[in-house]
Design brief:
heterodimer; A: mainly beta; 7-stranded mixed beta sheet; 11 strands; globular; B: mainly beta; 6-stranded mixed beta sheet; 5-stranded antiparallel beta sheet
Chain lengths: 115, 110
């Protein structure tokens, strides 16, 4: 079935390079979230979109991180001038509605390794 | 403070054992508490708990929420090797944003 799709599955970047991570949410899902999951830890919130509007970006760790969802469907998370501490799995999730009773569906994530 | 704490950090059991995973949180005004199972890929949804004292069941898994004592438990009976995973607990805040705990890593040996 059509779940949340993320690409690439793996990304290796040299320190200082820019990267772009893509998320295709489930069709028709209003809300889209990005989470960062370091090894052995739970996911941590980065940013949230409702349709094309970015309603919360309080979790973005620095101004090197930028996310967009220009047409309210596909989203891109961009990291500029990558640092080693950016190495993590980046998870995207979507939900049908922007209410608490609508469970989040996660993608398989992009594993970013910065060398 | 906005923390979700899970215990134990890891657990090793044998097939057929029963396990109880714990999740405690600190904020009282939240919408719901959720449990996810994470094998090597995407976290998959298990339960959403909104009301205190009402158990939710799905096969060998069950979960309950205690809003007074600010915790939830996830029980797995008659464990199988396929239950081996990281179990994540998350508090659902306004706007459907989740605050996750660090997870409990469960390993079920044959």
């Amino acid at each position: 079935g059509a779940g949340v799709s993320q690409s690439p599955r793996y990304k290796v970047a040299k320190r200082g390079q820019d990267v772009a991570l893509r998320c295709d949410p489930i069709s028709g899902h209003v809300s889209l979230f990005w989470y960062q999951q370091a090894l052995g830890q739970g996911p941590e919130f980065l940013t949230y979109f409702q349709n094309e509007a970015q309603l919360d970006k309080s979790g973005l760790p620095s101004d090197r991180f930028f996310a967009e969802r220009p047409e309210g469907s596909v989203s891109t998370l961009k990291i500029q001038r990558t640092q080693q501490e950016d190495s993590a799995v980046y998870l995207c999730a979507s939900s049908l509605r922007a209410i608490y009773s609508s469970p989040l569906h996660f993608g398989n994530g992009t594993r970013l390794t910065v060398t | 403070e906005d923390k979700v704490v899970q215990s134990p950090l890891s657990l090793v059991v044998h097939e057929g054992d029963t396990v109880t995973l714990n999740c405690s949180y600190e904020v009282t005004n939240f919408r719901s508490l959720l449990w996810y199972k994470q094998e090597k890929k995407a976290p998959t949804f298990l339960f959403m708990l909104t009301s205190s004292g009402i158990e939710k069941k799905s096969g060998r898994l069950s979960s309950i929420l205690d809003k007074k004592e600010l915790f939830s438990i996830l029980n797995i009976t008659a464990t199988q090797t396929g239950d081996s995973a990281v179990y994540l607990c998350a508090r659902n805040n306004a706007g459907n944003m989740l605050t996750f705990g660090g997870g409990t890593r469960l390993m079920v040996k044959p």
